[in-house]
Structure formats: structure tokens, C-alpha cells
């Protein structure tokens, strides 16, 4: 397994020289300054690669080459957006970056209600609280039918939270939810979010799947021609949010994705944390089922509550059996090696991490601290070494 590290380029306060001390070999990054739908220029890709290589790393996985919201909505004449996406793929391939992680989540890339929830040892973590999310949807956003998405006890507690919440509490909740909006270009207030959600008013699961199927038909042939691998990231959390359907949340969903375009180029970013947030998902079993199409792995863990809430756990301490999951990945690597594939090693990265120690006073991207991820990487490295012995 290839140790990788997500780095946000010019938006990241963690330097590549700091990352080098973790022992990771590869940098996973993207051109985060380019608006969605525009072509990634070869010169910009090459400059980023030179920067990464100068620091002693390789760049083999891009996370993410984003899918424009118009494509997800199936809105308007999409020919230019698809052409731009294919051109960006070609430009990445020309610089040797041939694995593309992406997602097909409408509007939000991920959703949390707390960006610094306390954990028992004084550190903080990302948390999704079902009560606060219900309070936001029902009482702040006023979304029609939101009450149908939450059980009665959660609705009662949400009403109580909203009644006692200060304006600062409500502002913090909105900011936490908006942190999941992709890129650095748009953030909404409550009225703005309500308006943008109207553009998805007629979007159901079947419609979103149809738009996703078209996306695969448009881009997977190009990936095949370029020798690239597309790998979809699962929904985070794996449930409908804000009335928006989610279609990459379970093993059955991944089966649909693989069947929608049957090609090794159409693969999976196996995210243990995203899948693990749904109690119905057996993450190691899902990984074993789709193993031959796994091109990239996010290893993190979550701890779930009965009411649908969850929070980021230490990498080896959550509800997912991380040792069993790593064993599945190593077995798939061995299978690929036995078939003579030179690209049998699968890149992974320690995903998220607790903010702890000196990271608590640094201005860091939520969920992406230095020390918490280093701790996770060290733990995972030990598991990999033990299972490989």
C-alpha cells in the first residue's frame, strides 16, 4: 500500500517539508483555485507536479477533479462542460497523473454540524449531530418535508436546541454545514441556501442516477484511452441531506456504479469513514466485493450513535474493523501482483484526524491536522507491517 497525504496546495498551512517528516511518499492534491467546469491547464498541472517532486514526493492521485453542478442536475447544454472535463483528464495524463478521485454528491461535498467537537482526551474532531442537523433543516432552513426525515425524539430535541440557541450558536451551525461546500468560491446564508436548493426541487434518486450514468458514458471512454482510473468517493454522510438524494452510499450503490459502465477505468475510492457512518454497511465486506475496482483508499473511522449522529474516531478505535479492512486491501494487492500487474500497489491516505496538541492553536483545514493524521498514519503503518509479515 502506497502511503499518501492530502495537501491543499496554496490553501494549506501545512508545508510539504512538514509532510515529509510523516514518511508519506505521495501527495494527493488538486488545483483548488480553478473554478469548477474550467479546463485545468497543462502548465498549471506541471508546475504543481514540479513543486511536489522538488519536495521529494510523487503526485499520482488527484483529489478531486470536480464534477460541475450542472452535470449533476442535468441542466442545459452540457457538451462544453463534458469537453472541458475530458480535456482536464488529458492534461493530467500528459503529466503522469492518472488516478482521479471525484464524487457525485449534489451541492455539498460533505456535511458536519461541528468542526471542533471535544473528545475525551482534550482533542477535537468533526461531528455530525442529527439533532443539530434537524434543527437546521426544520427551524432555520424551514425545508418542507424535513420533519419526515427525522424520528420523533430527534425532532423534539431539535426544537429544544433551537429555542435555547443563541444567534452565535446558529451562525456556527450554518458555518459548519457550509464548510462542506466544494472549493473556495461560494458560501450561502440561509436564504441563499434555500434558493439554491430550489434548483434541485425536482431531483430524485432516479434522476440523479440518470445524470450520473450520462457522466460515466461521457468520460470513462476517455479514461480508457488515456490509461486513467476514475474512482468515485462515497457520499458523506451516506444518507439524503437537505432533501438532496444520495446515490453512492452503500454496497448496492457501488454495484450500480460498476454496472453502469463495466470497465476497470470506472472504479472506487473506498472511503472507510463515509461508508462506516451507515450502520447497515459492513465496510470490510463491501471492500471485498468491489476489491478489483478499488483504485484509491481513504482510511478513517467513525463512532456512531443510535439516533444517526456520528463523529470521527481514532483510526483504530471506531466501529469499523480497520485491521480486517486493511487485510482486504492487502489481499487484493497480492491478487493483482500474482496476475503480473506492475501497478498492484494501491495508494491510501490517513483520512481526517483529531486536532490535538499544537494543532489546536494552528489555522488548519477542518479534519486535516498534521499531528492527528500523523498519528493515524503511524497506527495504520503498524497494521500494514504486521499483516504483511
Automatic annotation (TrEMBL):
Q: What class of enzyme is it?
A: lyase
The reply on keyword Kinase is: no
- What pathway does the UniProt record associate with this protein? Carbohydrate metabolism; pentose and glucuronate interconversion
- Catalytic activity from the UniProt record: D-mannonate = 2-dehydro-3-deoxy-D-gluconate + H2O
Pfam families tied to this protein? UxuA
Query: What InterPro entries does UniProt report for this protein, alphabetically?
Result: Man_deHydtase (IPR004628), Xyl_isomerase-like_sf (IPR036237)
Q: What GO MF terms are annotated?
A: mannonate dehydratase activity
Family stated for the protein in its record: Belongs to the mannonate dehydratase family.
Q: Which HAMAP family match?
A: UxuA (MF_00106)
Q: What does this protein do?
A: Catalyzes the dehydration of D-mannonate.
What NCBIfam families is this protein classified in? PRK03906.1, uxuA
**Name used for this protein in its record:** Mannonate dehydratase
Question: What organism, scientifically named, is this protein from?
Answer: Parasedimentitalea maritima
Q: Which gene encodes it?
A: uxuA
Amino acid at each position: 500500500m502506497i502511503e499518501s497525504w492530502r495537501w491543499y496546495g496554496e490553501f494549506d498551512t501545512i508545508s510539504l517539508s512538514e509532510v515529509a517528516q510523516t514518511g508519506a511518499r505521495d501527495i494527493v492534491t488538486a488545483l483548488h483555485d480553478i473554478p469548477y467546469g474550467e479546463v485545468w491547464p497543462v502548465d498549471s498541472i506541471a508546475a504543481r507536479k514540479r513543486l511536489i517532486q522538488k519536495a521529494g514526493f510523487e503526485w499520482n492521485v488527484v483529489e478531486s477533479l470536480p464534477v460541475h453542478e450542472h452535470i449533476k442536475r442535468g441542466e442545459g447544454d452540457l457538451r462544453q462542460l463534458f469537453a472541458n472535463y475530458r480535456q482536464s483528464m488529458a492534461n493530467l495524463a500528459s503529466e503522469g497523473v492518472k488516478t482521479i478521485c471525484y464524487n457525485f454528491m449534489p451541492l455539498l461535498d460533505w456535511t458536519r454540524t461541528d468542526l471542533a467537537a471535544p473528545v475525551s482526551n482534550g482533542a477535537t474532531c468533526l461531528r455530525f449531530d442529527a439533532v443539530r442537523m434537524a434543527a437546521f433543516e426544520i427551524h432555520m432552513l424551514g425545508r418542507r418535508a424535513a420533519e419526515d426525515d427525522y424520528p420523533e425524539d430527534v425532532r423534539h430535541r431539535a426544537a429544544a436546541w433551537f429555542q435555547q440557541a443563541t444567534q452565535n450558536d446558529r451562525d456556527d451551525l450554518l458555518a459548519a454545514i457550509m464548510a462542506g461546500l466544494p472549493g473556495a468560491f461560494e458560501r450561502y446564508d440561509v436564504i441563499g441556501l434555500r434558493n439554491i436548493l430550489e434548483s434541485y426541487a425536482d431531483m430524485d434518486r432516479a434522476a440523479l442516477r440518470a445524470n450520473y450514468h450520462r457522466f460515466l458514458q461521457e468520460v470513462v471512454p476517455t479514461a480508457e484511452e488515456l490509461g486513467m482510473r476514475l474512482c468515485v468517493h462515497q457520499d458523506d454522510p451516506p444518507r439524503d441531506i437537505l432533501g438532496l438524494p444520495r446515490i453512492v452510499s452503500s454496497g448496492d450503490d457501488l454495484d450500480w456504479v460498476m454496472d453502469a459502465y463495466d470497465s476497470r477505468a470506472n472504479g472506487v475510492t473506498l472511503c472507510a469513514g463515509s461508508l462506516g457512518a451507515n450502520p447497515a454497511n459492513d465496510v470490510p465486506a463491501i471492500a471485498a466485493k468491489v476489491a478489483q475496482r478499488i483504485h484509491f483508499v481513504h482510511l478513517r473511522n467513525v463512532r456512531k450513535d443510535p439516533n444517526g449522529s456520528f463523529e470521527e474516531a481514532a483510526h483504530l478505535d471506531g466501529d469499523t474493523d480497520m485491521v480486517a479492512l486493511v487485510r482486504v486491501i492487502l489481499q487484493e494487492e497480492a491478487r493483482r501482483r500474482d496476475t503480473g500487474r506492475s501497478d498492484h500497489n494501491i495508494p491510501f491516505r490517513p483520512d481526517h484526524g483529531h486536532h490535538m496538541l499544537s494543532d489546536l492553536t494552528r489555522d488548519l483545514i477542518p479534519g486535516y491536522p498534521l499531528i492527528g493524521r500523523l498519528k493515524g498514519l503511524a497506527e495504520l503503518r503498524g497494521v500494514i507491517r504486521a499483516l504483511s509479515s
